[in-house]
Every structure is written in structure tokens, then in C-alpha cells.
Design goal:
Blueprint (H helix, E strand, L loop, with lengths): L1 H31 L6 H24 L5
Helix pairs in contact: 1-2
Length: about 70
Amino acid sequence: MGNFLKLVTAGPLFFVSAWVLMLFAGIVHQDVGILPFGYVTSMIVTIGLWLCVAPAIGAVSRGRAHD
């Protein structure tokens, strides 16, 4: 049941992550040299980041058993 709850909480966290990315991109856009972007673009970037980072997190979380 614990894995199911983790999966259910990942959905809302995705939308919050995309919203936070959009806010920070709007705040730092002049310093970084980008144009501010909207929520849909932020969702696409968040999906890309999650797809790149998720396998690394999975590999690290499995780890090696200590004797």
C-alpha cells in the first residue's frame, strides 16, 4: 500500500513542481537571459527533468545492502 500512496502523491507534486519552476523562471529571467514562459512550457520542462532524474534516483535508492 505504501508504494501506491507514493504514486498518488507524485501527481500533485508534478503540478506544484511545474508551478514553482514557472515562478522561478519569471523571477530570474533577466539575470539568466531567458524569456519568461508559461505553465504549459513549465510542465513540459518538468516532465523532461523528471524523466532524466527518476532513473538516477531509483538507482541510488536501491543502493547496496550493508553487511
